[in-house]
Write a structure and sequence with these properties.
Distance between the termini: 63 Å
Number of strands: 0
Structural class: mainly alpha
Protein name: Iron complex transport system permease protein
Order of helices and strands: HHHHHHHHHHHHHHH
Largest sheet: none
Membrane topology: Multi-pass membrane protein
Pfam family, one: FecCD
CATH class: Mainly Alpha
CATH architecture: Orthogonal Bundle
Oligomer: single chain
Radius of gyration: 23 Å
Keywords: Cell membrane, Membrane, Transmembrane, Transmembrane helix, Transport
GO molecular function: transmembrane transporter activity
């Protein structure tokens, strides 16, 4: 009787790349796309310039060159602001959705936009502030004040600041602040004329002085948000499970809310209210990497400025020789994308 020796299968089986490697590769590719969009933001506009002019303007600046002046004085500040504000809005949206366990939450849920708008109107009406540089501190103070009121109202009662109570308190405070803002605008035409340019949401008209004012808050907020991945993963399991795992739920929510105010308040103060970025981008990030916030947060930080810069570039070229402000373009781009995303059940659920 002969025995047949089993031969080992010498065919090489394809090895699957581990999820971590794929996610890291996705981050690198997203960063490359963001770098390309940053270049387009410097090169494209009413006056289109080439790659050589962009590089020369950054490395060998000639104040007598019109192209160099346009790039350094106009396009570079709005590109840097788009990078910072986009990252802040993306992270703020992801943190807000994680804290409230609400896929429709955005940074405005804590009343940040309403508070910033009210304080900007008050600064124009009562103090005669007329420049974005002057708006910044009032908008930031208004955003912080609104968030404190919302969190204080939601914290009343036995359960503390639960996700549902945060959403309800945010809606109530936002409506109240919005009513007061509208009342001021209706009785003062001059205030309305000043306020509408900030309210539409724009990257244009903000110089390096505005960036210098908000950059420290944006950078600190971004770093702090990236460390909240494990906290948000724990909160997403529910309050009872989170407590069982040793998490301090109230403190975690308070810290997360403070980070949202820091990020969204700074971005709103500098650019005005810009919608759909903080709402849509976290859904795209979770569609790519799943519900793990340790990955969703860095993806949101890179994807959001991609959306903001692409919207800014589109706004410059669709209405030449003028331009459409970025807040309008993000709404036109973000609304259809968000509708398509929420129709997919596994994306809309947290």
């Amino acid at each position: 009787m002969t025995t047949v020796e089993a031969r080992p299968d010498l065919r090489r089986r394809p090895t699957r790349r581990p999820p971590r490697a794929r996610r890291l590769l996705g981050l690198v590719l997203t960063a490359a796309v963001l770098a390309l969009l940053a270049y387009l933001s410097l090169a494209v506009g009413t006056r289109t310039t080439g790659a050589g002019a962009v590089w020369d303007a950054l490395t060998r600046y000639d104040p007598d060159s019109t192209d160099h002046l346009v790039i350094r004085e106009l396009r570079l500040p709005r590109t840097v602001l788009g990078l910072l504000a986009g990252a802040a809005l993306g992270l703020a949206g992801a943190v807000m959705q994680g804290v409230t366990r609400n896929p429709l939450a955005d940074p405005g849920l804590l009343g940040v936009n309403a508070g910033a708008s009210l304080f900007v109107v008050l600064s124009i009406t009562l103090l005669g502030v007329t420049s974005p540089r002057g708006y910044v501190w009032f908008a930031f103070a208004g955003a912080a004040a609104a968030a404190v009121v919302v969190y204080g109202v939601a914290a009343l009662g036995r359960d503390g600041a639960s996700p549902l109570k945060l959403a309800l308190a945010g809606a109530a405070v936002g409506a109240a602040f919005g009513a007061v803002t509208t009342a001021f605008l209706l009785v003062d035409q001059a205030t309305f004329d000043q306020f509408r340019f900030w309210q539409v949401g724009a990257l244009a008209g903000r110089g390096t002085d505005v960036i210098a004012q908000v950059a420290p808050f944006l950078l600190v907020g971004c770093v702090a948000a990236l460390f909240l991945g494990r906290v948000l993963n724990t909160l997403s399991l529910g309050d009872d499970v989170a407590r069982g795992l040793g998490a301090h739920v109230a403190r975690s929510r308070a810290v997360s809310a403070a980070v949202v105010v820091l990020l969204c308040g700074s971005a709103t103060a500098a650019c005005g209210p810009i919608g759909f970025v903080g709402l849509t981008v976290p859904h795209v990030a979770r569609m790519i990497v799943g519900p793990d916030y340790r990955w969703a947060l860095p993806y949101s930080m890179l994807l959001a400025p991609c959306l903001l810069l692409s919207a800014d570039v589109v706004g410059r070229v669709i209405a030449r020789p003028g331009e459409v402000q970025v807040g309008i373009v993000t709404a036109l781009i973000g609304a259809p994308v968000f509708i398509a995303l929420v129709r997919r059940r596994h994306v809309s659920e947290l």
